[in-house]
């Protein structure tokens, strides 16, 4: 990744606009991208604090441009700092782009690798799991 005359190697992930809510991660500056941005395969990004500190020290990165695989992406948001996780990974060393942009512009992948969901309660998780297991066993009904 290149920006502001500086290089930084980081994780670029494709996500939906619900990513901050699902991960319980607030936007510190700017905003998250929208469903329209996903539909239009927009070249926009939300970055973590480590990326901001490395590429835009002492500057507001929102509105700036980063290059991912030589493709310019406009920074629309900055995630609040989360620090390191239990495995010692810097959670702030991340660039989040619309999943459609990641698939079509960065990886040219034609499938979704994984899906992250959030449930309102433990009971809701149990119900979804049992419904999923039942639907996997029962044949689909014909119209």
Detailed description of the structure:
This protein is globular. The strands form 2 sheets. Strands 3, 4, 5, 6, 7 and 8 form a 6-stranded mixed beta sheet that branches. It is 29% helix and 24% strand. The longest helix has 16 residues. The protein is of the alpha/beta class and 143 residues long. The model has no long low-confidence stretch (mean pLDDT 87). The protein contains 5 helices and 8 strands, in the order βββαβαβαβββαα.
Short description:
By secondary structure, this protein is an alpha/beta fold. The protein contains five helices and eight strands; from the N terminus they run βββαβαβαβββαα. It is globular and about 55 Å long.
Beta-strand segment tally: 8
Beta-strand residue percentage: 15-25%
CA distance, first residue to last residue: 50 Å
Along the chain, the helix and strand elements come as EEEHEHEHEEEHH
Using the alpha-carbon principal axes, give the shape.
Answer: globular
Tell me the helix content: 25-40%
| Gyration radius from CA atoms, angstroms | 18 Å
Task: State the helix count.
Answer: 5
The major beta sheet can be summarized as: 6 strands, mixed
Quickly give the structural class: alpha/beta
List keywords for this structure.
single chain; alpha/beta; six-stranded mixed sheet; 29% helix
What does the secondary structure layout of this molecule look like, with pairings?
Elements: E1 2-3, E2 6-7, E3 11-15, H1 19-22, E4 27-30, H2 35-39, E5 44-47, H3 49-55, E6 65-68, E7 71-79, E8 94-98, H4 99-107, H5 122-137
Parallel strand pairs: 3-8, 5-7
Antiparallel strand pairs: 1-2, 4-7, 5-8, 6-7
């Amino acid at each position: 990744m290149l920006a502001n005359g500086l290089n930084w190697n980081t994780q670029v992930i494709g996500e939906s606009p619900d990513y901050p809510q699902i991960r319980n991660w607030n936007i510190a500056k700017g905003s998250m991208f929208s469903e329209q941005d996903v539909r239009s395969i927009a070249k926009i990004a939300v970055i973590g604090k480590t990326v901001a500190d490395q590429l835009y020290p002492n500057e507001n990165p929102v509105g700036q441009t980063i290059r991912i695989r030589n493709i310019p992406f406009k920074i629309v948001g900055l995630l609040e700092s989360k620090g390191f996780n239990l495995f010692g990974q810097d959670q702030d060393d991340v660039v989040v782009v619309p999943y459609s942009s990641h698939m079509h512009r960065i990886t040219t992948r034609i499938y979704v690798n994984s899906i992250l969901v959030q449930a309102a309660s433990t009971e809701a998780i149990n119900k979804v799991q049992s419904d999923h297991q039942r639907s996997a066993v029962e044949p689909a009904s014909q119209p």
